[in-house]
Amino acid sequence: MILDLKAGVYYGLNVVGMRICALLQEPKTVSDIRAAIFGEYDVAVDRCQHDLLARLRGLAAKKLMQVSDDASA
Asked: DSSP letter at 9?
């Protein structure tokens, strides 16, 4: 689960969603996260990319993660 303290809302996650959040504990590129998910789960590359980007966009839209273009972030 993720708790949005500002909104006071809990978000439930499936196993893959929890893994993505665990990977986000330290700055990572989308490519790094995709490679980890692809290596750990039986999923087609295109499906992995599509679902990962959708999940990351959702987290960013709810301000539950910070997005940076800075490679050193």
From this structure: E
CA-to-CA distance for 33 and 28, rounded, in angstroms?
A: 7
Q: What is the pTM of this model?
A: 0.78
> Could you identify the residue written with the tokens 């809302």?
9
Which has the closest alpha carbon to 39: 57, 16, 58, 60?
16
Task: Provide the token pair at 11.
Answer: 């978000």
Question: Quick check: helix, strand or coil at residue 35?
Answer: helix
Q: The tokens of 67 are what?
A: 């997005």
Amino acid 30: pLDDT = 93
Q: Smallest Cα–Cα separation from 33: which of 44, 46, 22? A: 22
What are the φ/ψ torsions at residue 24 (nearest 5 degrees)? Answer: -80, 0
